[in-house]
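example protein:
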Amino acid sequence: MTRFRSLVLAAFAIGFFLHGSIAFAAVTSTIGSLGQLSSDAAQADAQVAKLLGPAKNLIAAGRVTDARASLDALKTHPEISDVDVVIADLMFAMGRNVEGQQWLERASATEPQRLAIHLAFCELAVRQRRWFDGWVLARLAAKLDPPDHWSVALRDRAAKRLMLLKAVCCEGRADWTMAREAYESLLSSSPGMSDPMNRDVNVGLARSCFQLKDYDASLAALTTLVSKNRTLGTPQQLLAQFYEQSEMIPEADGAYAKSIAEADEDRRPSVRLAYAKFLLHTNAPAQAKPLLQDPITKIENAKALEDERLYLQAVLARMEGRLEQSQTILSKLHQDHPDSVSIANQLAVILVSNEDEAIRARALQIAEASVRNVSGSADGWATLGWVRLRLGDLAGADASLAQSLKLGKPSRDTLYYLSQLKRVAGKTEEADAFERYYNAAKGPKVFNLAE
């Protein structure tokens, strides 16, 4: 089996296909997937950040032992959970994840029954999506007493965080009933929780209720969530995302339609864009077109929303075969957003289909610049592979598409590129297989296999 084919099979083994990239900016609200907790929800020691400054500088200089010694005086500070956990957290914040985990491992060898150590490892398990490990650690931590020096506020934060992590692990293990009970317990016992945690808990509760097919309770949790942060959209808009993620397309369509009706004037443009995005993704461009006709002005974030509307118009034009109009829109957007991989990908694919060699060369420049700017973009590398293939560089196309498969699951467009690469290489059987994958995949269908 070739290395390239092995990469393809590995990508498929991870899961089915991701949605193609339709949006280029986070201007319409989305619900994070399981395990994506708010980044600032766990910062119990943030109040004493000034005291940690010298230790942070020492760690940055590679003097970890000195940093640990500088924190000895804070061992019994009422707002410091554990000095070793603080050291590890500072390492994680610097991106030194391996060192941070190793520090925790060594700390656990000296005093393994520390609540803060258990909580830190539980947090790690959730971030690494090791649900059973996190669940076991949460159960063990719940049996440990906090140190005497902890303040009442720190004890409360740690207890709430532990309950949240346990609930998330129940979700990860598909124990939806237990997850729902844990989230409801958090809400009833913690009326003063922080905004980030409130969001995490309500999203988790909504997701758990949805999985239990209690859609009314899910909508109620989303309504509570939106009441505290109107920028998230409308409850029906967020419920539609759950339906869409579960491939309940008619229900998602109905919820998106309701979301427009319930949105006030300020939120309606964002909701219309979310609905249009859904319709394009489900290959209903005719229904999406009316939602994208009106320019967006005179509201907060109007420029970002308007650019998103124009981008979706360009995608719509591509789907309808109006390539010149799509190119005109994308060229202007690319000038305004040169670092956007989504815009660059769409534009490069259109330009490389031109008969003018100078324009085709420009497509290559854009695709190459895109992967230089964002080297971890699977779609960016796939687009570069397609551009190279259209320019006759078979080896370069093969290498770029192989890199794309290393970075993530193939989008619908990527599957098309792979089918054409195999067809050009004379590998008919593999080309036919990729065409079947392309036809079965989700996302906008902008390529016609019959062409």
